[in-house]
Amino acid sequence: MSPTGSLSLDNPALKTPAFARLPSWTKEKLSPLAIKKIQDVYDWVEQECIPREQIMKAQLEGPGNRWKTPSLMHELREKAKDRGLFNLFLPNHFVESPGLTNLEYSCCAEIMGRVYWAAQTMNCHAPETGNIELLAKYCSEEQKKKWLQPLLDGTAASAYSMTEPDVASSDATQIGIRMRREGDEYVIDGRKLYGNCLWNKELGFYILMGCSAPDNEDRWKRHTMIIVPCATPGITQVRNLTIMGYDHAPEGHGEYVYENVRVPAENVILGEGRAFEIAQGRLGPGRIHHCMRLVGQCERAYELALIRCRDPAKKPRGRFIGEFDSNIERIAQMRLELDQARLVVLNAADVMDTLGNKAGKRAIAQSKILVPRMATRIIDECMQLYGGQGLTQHTPLPEMWTYARFVRVADGPDAAHRHQVGREEMKTAEGFRQRHAEYLRRYRELAERYGEKVVSFDYGNLE
Fold first, then answer.
1. Are residues 287 and 421 in the same domain?
2. Could you tell me if 291 and 129 are in contact, meaning their C-beta atoms sit under 8 angstroms apart?
3. CB 381 within 8 A of CB 406
4. Of 298 and 1, which is predicted with more confidence?
5. Which BP terms in the Gene Ontology apply to this protein (predicted)?
């Protein structure tokens, strides 16, 4: 055993393909439990998910099946649950957790990303991951029994309802759907975007963020989160929202109107006016789960590119596509960027484990900015290698690219995260100014000692 309690790096358990891309520092931090789970997830995705990709699609295409969860998904979820592969994402400080750290789960999530729906077979998919963590952290014991436990058991499904069409939702203080208290109920009126489709009748409830005190002088206390059962009268789905042309059935996204929707006051989470407290607590691991999976998705796209490069049926001017210098460099650049992205994500997960989610917000923002942009570039290059065929359903590349592009806005636009990182960096300027002023003072002392003329530098007022 190593000093951290994990297996030694020369242990055969770490020599399988499941661990091939992980840096040594990450392997050194893996517990025996994590090593087993990572290998189990790898075997599950390789043996159970990838071979069934086309079957899953076929089950969605049958008459009346488009907005029904395929029977294959239910079958796989039961098998994964029996194998102990459910809810792996929930960090080990929750009593409901299976025991993995954020770093350890990152290694699992990358493997899940190789198939778009693989995470769902293990109950590790969005929006359930964020919703489960939110409910586990902020709900009362009674609420946990009613709403959280069915999600953990995989017998219910939920969605998160925050974005709105009439305001700039990147500034969540502008969220305007109204919630007013009437006796033992809240009455909700307004419009929402996103949130999984009501057309899938397995969807059980939304966690909705609304404005309950619009006149409160403290704008951070105007909003409340409440659990809204999907069967509540007054909720209308206007239409499915396609993402770059894909409907993402059977979950999808929707546009909704709430008219006189009455919800029991006991469904409020944590308390009225505490939505931002909850939202900040939710912006932890769940915010980079997409990024973790994107690394795995890009690895699969990269593998397809390598296959194309060595396809004997595709030899323009008598040479393998991979023998042209431009494509050799293209493959190299993809490999470099993929490995960079993995390090960014693993670092963010490790910071959350060691310093906490709040301290890790900068690393989380870095992941959110860098990884989806990297993914769209890499998948785009892979499509280029396939030529016209790479834009069609002959490969999964167009769907991969669309998912990566969606993730760039799924948890807030790049600009919002860059702004956060930039503000934090600006706070460091004074410390650097003082350091460079000390360099200058010391330089003048040394120049006088050596009898040299002092040269002035004009890169900032350091006096």
1. yes
2. no
3. no
4. 298
5. fatty acid beta-oxidation using acyl-CoA dehydrogenase
Give residue 421's identity as a one-letter amino acid code: V
Instruction: Write the CATH number for 296.
Output: 1.20.140.10
Cβ neighbours around 54 below 10 Å, total = 8
Secondary structure (3-state) at 59:
helix
Residues with Cβ < 8 Å from 155, sequence gap 6 or more?
none
- 160 beta partners: 207
Q: How far apart are CA 431 and CA 457, in angstroms?
A: 19
Please provide residue 331's backbone torsions phi and psi, each rounded to the nearest 5 degrees.
-65, -45
List the CATH number of the domain containing 74: 1.10.540.10
Looking up residue 248, the CATH number of its domain turns out to be 2.40.110.10
Q: Are residues 46 and 112 in the same domain?
A: yes
pLDDT digits (tens, 9 = 90+) for 121-141: 999 999 999 999 999 999 999
CA-based R_g, the chain, Å: 25
Whether residue 1 is predicted with pLDDT greater than 50 in this model: the reply is: no
pLDDT in tens, 185-208: 999 999 999 999 999 999 999 999
Cα-flanking dihedrals φ and ψ of residue 227, to 5°? -90, 120
